[in-house]
């Protein structure tokens, strides 16, 4: 297993993994229309490019042989604070439950510490079972946030934080 930093050339692969993973993750939580709206908003190639080039997000891919299993994206010093925000973490359904998610979170934690950040921070849908994964990884729920994302859609999130 290798962890590599994604470049522009990897963006179609990231988009592909998202489209494979989101229906299984959110099918029971969000409407089909909201899933399609959010995928288009966050995973078009121009949107991914702007996340990397303008918003300081770094994407790390987990690679096994020729195959990409999933990705995490993070942003150091989010909102000018010494905290690293994990914006996205998605593994293909067949690659979940094998320790890869823990490896990605720990990797980002190491990078955050090297950059003198004191905590990892993320938003997660309140009904996503990933909440249990984050708790296992040492995150605590520190708040609730309902975000209006347009077109009548809402994100109902917990804010979770892990001290480093
Ligand atoms: C959430 C996700 C990233 C976790 O990665 P993973 O590789 O499946 O998880 P791991 O195998 O590394 O699990 C690490 C530990 O957390 C535990 N864990 C995993 N999922 C859990 C859950 N839902 N509830 C409680 N514990 C959980 C595992 O048992 C493991 O514990 P152990 O160290 O005692 O064995 C992955 O399952 C995924 O991509 N899910 C779908 C997408 C998603 O929901 N992303 C998050 C969006 S905010």
Report on this structure.
It comes from Runella rosea. GO terms for molecular function: acyltransferase activity, transferring groups other than amino-acyl groups. InterPro entries: Acyl_CoA_acyltransferase (IPR016181), GNAT_dom (IPR000182), YpeA/RimI_acetyltransf (IPR050680). With about 160 residues, the chain is α+β, with helices and mostly antiparallel strands. The chain has one domain (about 1-115): 3-Layer(aba) Sandwich (Aminopeptidase). Helix content is about 35%, strand content about 35%. It has helices spanning about 10-25, 30-45, 45-55, 100-115, 130-135; strands at about 1-5, 60-65, 65-75, 85-90, 120-125, 140-150, 155-164. A 7-stranded mixed β-sheet has the order 1-2-3-4-5-7-6, with helices on both faces. α1 packs antiparallel against α2. The longest helix is centred in the first third of the chain and has 16 residues, at about 10-25. The site of coenzyme A (COA) has 20 residues, from α1, β4, α4 and α5.
Q: Which characteristics define this entry?
A:
164 residues; Aminopeptidase; 5 helices; alpha+beta; seven-stranded mixed beta sheet; binds coenzyme A
What top-tier CATH class fits best?
Alpha Beta
CATH homology superfamily: Gcn5-related N-acetyltransferase (GNAT)
Number of helices: 5
Find the CATH topology: Aminopeptidase
Largest sheet: 7 strands, mixed
The secondary structure category is alpha+beta
Residue fraction in strands: 35-45%
Question: How many domains, in number, for the residues?
Answer: 1
- Give the total of beta strands: 7
Protein name: GNAT family N-acetyltransferase
GO molecular function: acyltransferase activity, transferring groups other than amino-acyl groups
Keywords: Acyltransferase, Transferase
Organism: Runella rosea
């Amino acid at each position: 297993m290798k962890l590599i930093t994604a470049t522009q050339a990897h963006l179609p692969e990231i988009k592909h993994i998202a489209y494979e993973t989101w229906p299984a993750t959110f099918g029971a939580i969000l409407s089909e229309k909201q899933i399609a709206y959010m995928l288009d908003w966050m995973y078009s190639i121009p949107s991914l490019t702007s996340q990397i080039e303008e918003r300081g997000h770094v994407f790390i891919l987990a690679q096994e042989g020729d195959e990409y299993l999933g990705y995490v994206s993070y942003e150091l010093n989010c909102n000018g604070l010494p905290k690293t925000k994990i914006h996205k973490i998605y593994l293909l359904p067949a690659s979940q439950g094998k320790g890869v998610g823990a490896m990605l979170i720990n990797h980002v934690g190491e990078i955050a510490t090297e950059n003198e950040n004191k905590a990892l921070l993320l938003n997660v849908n309140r009904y996503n079972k990933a909440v249990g994964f984050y708790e296992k990884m040492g995150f605590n729920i520190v708040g609730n946030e309902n975000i209006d994302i347009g077109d009548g859609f809402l994100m109902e999130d917990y804010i979770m934080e892990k001290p480093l």
